[in-house]
Amino acid sequence: ILYSVDIFNAAKSSIDPYVATIVVGAMQVLGVGLSTAVIERTGRRPLLFASSFGVIICHITLGTLFLLKTLDYDISVVGWLPIVAVSLFSVAYSTGVGPMCYIVTNEVYHPDAASFCSSVSLFVLYFAGFIITKFFPAVGDLIGMHWCFFILVICCIVIFLLVLFLVPETKGRTKESILNELRLGKRLDGESQKGATIQSIS
């Protein structure tokens, strides 16, 4: 988002880069509102799956677009594609991957370690954000903008796999049930029924 104007300029978008950036910001607000509206209906994992998959597709699209531009292909016919990809990225990120890191971390940590673990998680999150913000332009100039997006694709695939194999569904469940699943690697039958009862009541 911070470099959306530069991305649109580099991609030779057919839409004014500053207007496109305003649209992207509006789409980000839409994504946050959508997440707020559906998070308690769909659960955490479905939103994380959909969000990470959407982010992967958007990064692949942008990476491919810049790769074709690097290979001197005429991409003017799809001059609208950068704003569509970045806008959909904003919606996808703001719907799941963005806000969920704050919600799920508070639900999966043991109460005795929650403060410390949440602090470490937020430190890693913001440090990674700093690294990306600081070095994105330099890396783009060094190895090409397309490789920046393909590297981000790899990172997002890792997130998708972590959600698939490690992150439990926390909606409508007690802290004890969540911690038991993390400790044992599966839900106990009684806990599954209890979680289902809580969800039906809510």
Automatic annotation (TrEMBL):
It is a multi-pass membrane protein. Its main location: membrane. It comes from the Eukaryota. Keywords: Membrane, Transmembrane, Transmembrane helix. The chain crosses the membrane at residues 18-39, 46-68, 80-104, 116-136, 142-167. The keyword Transmembrane helix applies. Gene3D superfamilies: MFS general substrate transporter like domains. SUPFAM superfamilies: MFS general substrate transporter (SSF103473). GO terms for cellular component: membrane. Residues 1-171 form the Major facilitator superfamily (MFS) profile domain. InterPro entries: MFS_dom, MFS_sugar_transport-like, MFS_trans_sf, MFS_Trehalose_Transporter. One of its GO terms (molecular function) is transmembrane transporter activity. This is Major facilitator superfamily (MFS) profile domain-containing protein. It comes from Bracon brevicornis.
